[in-house]
Amino acid sequence: MKNEMHLQFSALSQNESFARVAVAAFIAQLDPTMDELTEIKTVVSEAVTNAIIHGYENDPKGIVYISVFIEDRIVEMTIKDEGVGIKDIEEARQPLFTTKPELERSGMGFTIMENFMDEVEVHSQPGSGTEIRLRKLLSKSKMLCN
Ligand SMILES: Nc1ncnc2c1ncn2[C@@H]1O[C@H](COP(=O)(O)OP(=O)(O)OP(=O)(O)O)[C@@H](O)[C@H]1O
Ligand SMILES: [Mg+2]
Q1: Residue ranges of the Histidine kinase/HSP90-like ATPase domain (predicted)?
Q2: Ligand 1 pocket check: which of 43, 45, 52, 54 to mutate, most ligand atoms within 8 Å of Cβ?
């Protein structure tokens, strides 16, 4: 069965934990392992943090959009902002690359997303924003195998 949910919220750092918990609650119906749930929550945090601090440069008038689609054991998520966008996507995805070293950013957000998800697509245009598409196949549910 297909199922989907959509969220939008102000670009405020206190909404990062809300987004992480809301996505985890939606995914819970697939009976993921604790590791899978932790990985998905971490990835949502990284992408939402990026939208807030890089995309909108902490302007709370910005809106962050999340969509989650589930079908069978596949989880697809998009996390989108309408902020500044990324000039060079390939460079931004490199481990340790950051444009905000002064904020003690380590440049590991995209690397974490790639490690925890099966597919990571970055779509971005300077001046119009960034959309991250993430895909993960969950392991077989305990409830389904006996
Ligand atoms: N939504 C976004 N809008 C604009 N630029 C972005 C966005 N997401 C990422 N970037 C750019 O890509 C770079 C790399 O992102 P990444 O998440 O890997 O590292 P970081 O956010 O700088 O550091 P960390 O995630 O380790 O705190 C950022 O420094 C920023 O320049
Ligand atoms: Mg980051």
Answers
A1: 35-140
A2: 54
Sign of CA dihedral 21, 23, 25, 28: negative
Q: Cβ-count burial of 83 within 10 angstroms (0-12 exposed, 13-18 middle, 19+ buried)?
A: buried
Catalytic choice (16, 39, 46, 82):
46
The CB-based long-range contact list for 31-40 (8 Å cut-off, 24+ gap) reads: 31/141, 31/142, 31/143, 32/138, 33/138, 33/139, 36/136, 36/138, 36/139, 39/116, 39/117, 39/136, 40/75, 40/77, 40/116, 40/136
- What confidence tens digit (pLDDT) does each residue in 81-131 have? 999 999 999 999 999 999 998 878 899 999 999 999 999 999 999 999 999
Whole-angstrom Cα distance, residue 31 to residue 140?
9
DSSP-derived letter for residue 72 is T
Fold of 2-137: Heat Shock Protein 90 (3.30.565)
Q: H or E stretch including 120?
A: strand 119-125
